[in-house]
Amino acid sequence: MATAADTIAFQTIPHPAPTSEADRTAMLANPGFGTQFTDHMVSIDWVEGKGWHNPTVGPRGPIALDPAAAVLHYAQEIFEGLKAYRHPDGTVALFRPEQNAQRFNRSADRLAMPHLPEELFLGAIDAILSVDGGWIPDGDGASLYLRPFMFANEAFLGVRPAKQYKFLLIASPAGNYFKSGAPAVSIWVSSDYTRAAPGGTGAAKCGGNYAASLVPQAEAIERGFDQVVFLDAVERKWIEELGGMNLFFVFDDGRVITPPLTGTILPGITRDSLIDLLREEGLTVVEERYSIDDWQSDANSGKLVECFACGTAAVVTPVGRVAGRDRDFTIGTGGPGQLTGRLKDRLTGIQRGQLPDTQGWVRKIG
After folding, report:
1. Residue 299 and residue 328 in contact, taking contact as beta carbons nearer than 8 Å
2. What cofactor is this protein dependent on (predicted)?
3. What does the alpha-carbon distance between residue 41 and residue 127 come to, in Å, rounded to a whole number?
4. I need a labelling partner for 185 at 20 to 30 A (CA). Which of 95, 117, 248, 317 fits?
């Protein structure tokens, strides 16, 4: 199969001392999440008046950065996250990578950064997989996590959009995002912090959004919970999302609600895919606001039978318990629901080539 990299001339610089096969095998046996990295990375430069140039795949290593680089002072930085899977036939596959490319550029728009052409985004992925495809681990929940990102590296201290940027792509073998054995995650409702406000950067995948979530996330962990959930910044009553995942609510009448994309919630690719799968099953999916008070009362009455979070890293994760300063309730039995489990199996089956791809979502590399 022809790939995007076939039409883009990436310079390849061999790694002088690649990881030995024995060391790589040991690393892949228990990769964890985000702590192990492959040998190579992709780098592409952008300069005003010249555009994108110097596409290179070479050894992964430190970045030389001027102390006055704009990213360090004004946070012009965006990123994406997607996974590469090894299919049963031995091919490498991606799940809807063009959606990541398009969201990357929507984030770039919000942060006043240049667009990266979709073919160049996809070509960068092809380029790193051509040299580091052997890093894709086997096993349940395992994949090669890909992290494309772009930042302003022009050295200046004036407040304006930078005129120089760097795009990088690194790869990390990954296992399950949450600890194995947990039947469902528990969530703490943040009362003191919000993730995003109307007109802000909530719909962009930029580092600042995640930095702002670290204190409330730490608060949740200190209280014994797995994740934090944010309410809207205006009324402090409407459910938005977790620190890095979208939410779905399943009711006893078969209806499913997920908060709408109003500019304060990241438009998740997993979220979008699950909406399509739910509707394919004949279920009614409504994108509408859902309040924290309704969440509690519906869970207590039994009207709400399941709740799950979703995202690239965590895929589909059941939510069992929710608590806050003046509330504490359990959803269903506190464990995975039938629909949640079925959706996860369906989605991961498509991603891993174990079930038919009726939507045309899978892009095979070779």
Report:
1. no
2. pyridoxal 5'-phosphate
3. 9
4. 95
